[in-house]
Write a structure and sequence with these properties.
The complex is a heterotrimer of chains A (about 350), B (about 375) and C (about 300). Chain B is mainly α and about 375 residues long. Chain B is about 80% helix and about 0% strand. Classes of the chains: A alpha/beta (about 350), B mainly alpha (about 375), C mainly alpha (about 300).
Chain lengths: ~350, ~375, ~300
């Protein structure tokens, strides 16, 4: 279980790719199409931020990547291609046993509200050992040493935390324990779902700092899912914004903030106050997300977009390249900077 | 001056660490629960004592009147006899009688039986108590374990035929009064279908078989206790099962179960250590309450099946107006339940680490 | 507009909204039907079915026939008539006892939760001790000393035993409700304690109170039938418990041909208890609109 920093020539290697992924939920009213034809790539060592409001399908997407969708959900189509040294396989077509081995060892998903993510009747030590044992590492002492190392990496005191019960730790500490646990088996990919949402602002700061440091010291790729664009600014290499179950813009982080091409992204940026810079009007995006059961044709953002026209309402825009490595799904992306949003 | 101050510092330091030790002991959950149990026992004993003495048709007065009218005794002789009977010195002021009574209790002297002249109550209780403890204890164990297992089963197999059948059955059996179930078992199995040899099943054991850890004795006592145990189990397993079912369903929705799956833990481990241990906590919390209920119902069950436990002893003594026995049995039953509650609470605190910190669940 | 009136209106809210959740929940519907059936049987039935107390030794333990749908008992009397007449007293005692214990429990429980402090601690201490004492032995011992032949006396004693458990539960409910947002809002709007208790807290507890009432009725039935069965309560009229007791003491149980004699009261009591318990399942939905909407 050693960690090594990736060699330069392997940096562009794509280790996770979603191909035209569609997931839907069956509810009494009908079928909720939560994720509609999503495709993206995750390269080795990079951090990808998936930003969207609640109902955008981002959590469903995250769950689909590790095969943890609830029973009411079904994958209508698509693949989740994962690459390892010894081969390439589709996560969605793994058997139950293979899926169990895949989870946490290759790809660890850390959920929001870590407040209740740890079994309340087991000590932190037992939860680490459980995880290690489930993946064939029966040496308790080795697990202990590795866990100690990881706990220090996340700025926790191992002696204080190791034999503690979850309720004896604060929310921020629990979140960090979960991050350390995620690193235990040295996975290639870590998915964080709303890592800072349930925390107060000081603890958020601490967790973000820990994540940043970890990225420097340990080799893993990160997907983090959030509604908080400022978090993307802190941690991400690339940002993808999601709306109504589809990715509407994806680019590297600087591009997204300086030259946002999709009206939704622009709206998100303008909705966050800046500490430095001019005092400008805070603008929220009017309206609410669309109903994903009775889906209207055309661009899903059209009802809330001030620049929408007839073309927008009839034909759904696909992702087009609007700059180097920068894609946006908008018919009128050239109007960037001119809109009144 | 300085030396005096230093001399004071040493004992002060000792005092401080002694005080810390005392505080730790006192705040320990077990100690506090123990203290509460002892206080409750004390209250019950005191209340029984004073209520019996202060009630209008107070048994002691009745007894004395009886002795005077039936046997033409003098008041002093009747008083003396009553004193021996109830293990109290009736010529003394009430409060010193109370102290005497407590002292006698500590020595295990519970008075003499009224109807079985010459038999100390303690002896009778010693003869009958083990059987109740045996039948009730075994039933509780079986019912609890069975209920927990069936509850998890129905939760995992929700909405299947098995679930519906078991849940309905459980609901029906736990709503019907346990003595009625006992009667139905008796009537159907013993009288109508003649499946069981009722006459031989009466009593707690067959005379002539030597008590001990041999197979013959054990099968014999199980044979005699089968019907009472069957009744207790049938009428209590339903509620354990339904509680466990709803608890398991709720636990399965918890975040840590989803995370456990995300961590790639095997289903068997999740079912036992993650779902099972957490879902069973409410059951352990209810264990204390159910002990009291089962012991209370044992009176009727033992009467119906003619099983010689303290429940039957209590009923017989009530019917015969044997007050010393009545009072003592009531006390023993209550104390047993309180102690069982204590055990159940301590057990719960061992199982749920969150309780140890707060010192007990306030409910 | 009186607050009591608005409470009742909100609680019953028109027959349509009232009946729908009951019908939807199958167990609750069966329970309601059972309850209504037993009430009709026990209160209207006696007007229709005559009870003969004459012993007819030629007809002892006769099997079911047109004349005697459930056969006859050890004295040749019609069993069906006894079942019809035997429910009234049981139901009345259960209802009175349930009402009294629920009333005491609600009053003390909510007072305890609202007042807090010494009163609360003392009440909780008392109920705590009470919970650890097994109820039936206490009842049996009391019955030995106090003459419980009067319906009211029996109901009263029964209710005294039941209220502590209920009071604790009521207190827990009120405490949790007190923290709810709408109570905070009412307090912020300075609407007064009386309004808060009657218009905010109590309506949300109605389902709880109704369920508590039904449960205390079931325990009252358990206790009174048991007492009569053991012969600890002198009986004048012929109710289900008395039927049981007589069948037991006359050795009816051990006679093959008298199955109905013992099973009739057993079934009557068991089915009534079952109806009550199942009714509580839908009572929750009636008073709790949130459960209704999701169904």
């Amino acid at each position: 279980m050693e960690s090594s920093y990736p060699a330069a020539e392997r940096r562009d290697e794509v280790i996770l790719r979603a191909e035209d992924l569609s997931v839907e939920y069956v509810v009494r009213r009908g079928v909720v199409r939560a994720v509609r034809g999503v495709s993206f790539e995750l390269r080795r060592g990079e951090a990808l931020a998936l930003i969207g409001e609640s109902g955008s399908g981002k959590t469903t997407l995250g769950l689909a990547l590790v095969g943890l969708l609830p029973r009411t959900a079904r994958v209508r189509q698509g693949h989740v291609i994962y690459r390892r040294q010894n081969g390439v396989y589709d996560v969605l077509s793994l058997s139950a046993g293979e899926l169990r081995r895949f989870r946490w060892q290759e790809c660890a998903m850390v959920f929001q509200s870590a407040l209740n993510a740890l079994n309340p009747v087991l000590r932190v030590a037992d939860q680490f050992c459980d995880t290690a044992r489930a993946h064939g590492n029966l040496d308790r002492a080795a697990t202990y040493r590795r866990a100690q190392e990881l706990l220090r990496l996340v700025q926790l005191d191992p002696d204080r935390v190791w034999r503690a019960f979850p309720h004896e730790l604060s929310g921020g500490m629990r979140q960090r324990v979960l991050i350390a646990l995620a690193l235990l088996l040295d996975p290639q990919v870590i998915i964080l779902d709303e890592p800072t949402t349930a925390l107060d602002i000081l603890t958020q700061r601490a967790v973000i700092d820990v994540l940043r440091q970890l990225r420097r010291q340990v080799d893993f790729s990160l997907i983090f899912i959030s509604h908080d664009l400022s978090l993307a600014a802190e941690l991400a290499d690339r940002v993808a914004t999601m709306y109504a179950g589809a990715i509407v813009e994806v680019s590297d982080v600087y591009e997204v903030f300086e030259r946002p091409a999709h009206p939704y992204t622009r709206g998100l940026i303008r909705a966050v106050p800046t500490v430095t810079g001019d005092l400008r009007q805070l603008a929220s995006i009017p309206g609410s997300p669309p109903d994903l059961v009775d889906i209207l044709p055309g661009c899903k953002f059209a009802p809330r977009c001030p620049d929408a026209d007839e073309a927008c309402r009839t034909e759904e825009p696909q992702l087009v390249e609007v700059g180097p490595g920068h894609f946006a799904a908008c018919h009128h992306w050239q109007k960037a900077g001119v809109s009144t949003l | 001056m300085a030396t005096a101050a230093r001399a004071c510092a040493v004992p002060a330091g000792v005092l401080r660490s002694a005080w810390r030790l005392v505080r730790r002991v006192v705040s320990s959950f077990v100690v506090r629960r123990l203290a509460k149990a002892l206080i409750t026992i004390l209250v019950v004993i005191t209340a029984t004592f004073f209520i019996i003495r202060l009630m209008p048709s107070n048994p002691i007065q009745v007894y004395i009147q009886e002795q005077i009218s039936l046997y033409s005794m003098s008041y002093e002789d009747a008083l003396a006899q009553a004193s021996a009977m109830f293990a109290m010195r009736l010529d003394q002021p009430l409060f010193s009688q109370y102290l005497d009574y407590m002292r006698n209790l500590l020595h295990g002297d519970l008075g003499m039986s009224y109807r079985s002249v010459g038999t100390p109550v303690a002896q009778q209780i010693a003869k009958f108590l083990p059987w109740t403890l045996f039948s009730v204890g075994l039933s509780l164990l079986v019912s609890f374990a069975l209920g927990m297992g069936l509850g998890m089963l129905t939760a995992y197999r929700r909405e299947t035929l098995l679930d519906h059948v078991l849940s309905t059955l459980g609901s029906v059996l736990s709503s019907v009064p346990n003595y009625l179930v006992a009667m139905v078992l008796l009537v159907l199995l013993g009288v109508q279908w003649k499946v069981l040899p009722l006459a031989q099943m009466r009593g707690s054991h067959t005379a002539g078989i030597k008590p001990g850890f041999n197979l013959r004795f054990i099968t014999d006592i199980l044979f005699h206790a089968a019907m009472p145990i069957a009744t207790y189990v049938l009428t209590t397993v339903g509620s354990w099962m339904l509680t466990m079912k709803s608890s398991t369903i709720a636990t399965l929705e918890e975040d840590y179960v989803t995370v456990a799956r995300a961590r790639g833990l095997p289903d068997s481990r999740i079912m036992t250590a993650y779902v099972g241990r957490n879902a069973s906590l409410p059951l352990f919390a209810q264990l204390a309450i159910s002990v009291g209920f089962v012991v209370g119902g044992s009176m009727l069950i033992e009467a119906i099946f003619v099983y010689q436990g303290v429940g039957k002893l209590l009923i017989d003594s009530i019917n015969q107006r044997d007050y010393p026995v009545m009072q003592a049995v009531f006390l023993i039953i209550t104390v047993s339940v309180i102690l069982a509650n204590l055990l159940a609470d301590v057990l719960y605190s061992r199982l749920d680490p969150r309780v140890r910190v707060t010192g007990g669940s306030e409910q | 507009m009186s607050t009591a009136g608005s409470v009742v209106r909100r609680a019953s809210g028109g027959l349509g909204t009232w009946l729908r959740p009951v019908i939807r929940n199958r167990a609750g519907l069966i329970g309601l039907i059972g309850l209504v059936a037993f009430i009709l049987l026990s209160f209207v039935g006696p007007l229709v079915v005559p009870l003969s107390t004459q012993t007819d030794l030629s007809k002892v333990y006769s099997p079911p026939s047109l004349q005697h749908p459930l056969g006859t008992d050890f004295q040749g009397r019609d069993i069906w008539a006894q079942v019809v007449h035997g429910g009234k007293e049981v139901l009345i005692i259960a209802f009175i006892s349930g009402l009294i214990s629920t009333a005491i429990a609600v009053a003390l429980g909510s007072l305890s939760a609202v007042l807090g402090g010494l009163f609360d601690s003392f009440t909780m201490w008392v109920t705590d001790i009470w919970l650890t004492i097994p109820h039936f032995p206490v009842l049996a011992v009391i019955a030995a000393f106090v003459k419980l032949s009067d319906v009211w006396a029996l109901a009263f004693i029964l209710s005294l035993l039941a209220w502590p458990t209920l009071a604790r539960a009521v207190r827990a409910q009120v405490l949790s409700l007190r923290q709810r947002d709408y109570v905070e809002a009412a307090r912020a709007l300075d609407l007064g304690t009386r309004h808060i208790v009657f218009s905010e807290i109590l309506p949300n507890m109605m389902s709880y109170v109704a369920i508590s009432l039904v449960f205390s009725m079931t325990s009252a039935i358990y206790a009174q039938v048991a007492l009569v069965f053991l012969g600890l309560v002198p009986f004048a009229t012929n109710n289900w418990g008395v039927m049981l007791s007589l069948a037991w003491t006359r050795g009816t149980i051990f006679y093959r041909g008298s199955l109905l004699n013992i099973m009739s009261p057993v079934l009557a009591i068991a089915l009534f208890q079952l109806s009550l318990v199942w009714l509580t399942r839908s009572l929750e939905e009636v008073f709790n609109p949130r459960l209704r909407a999701s169904a």
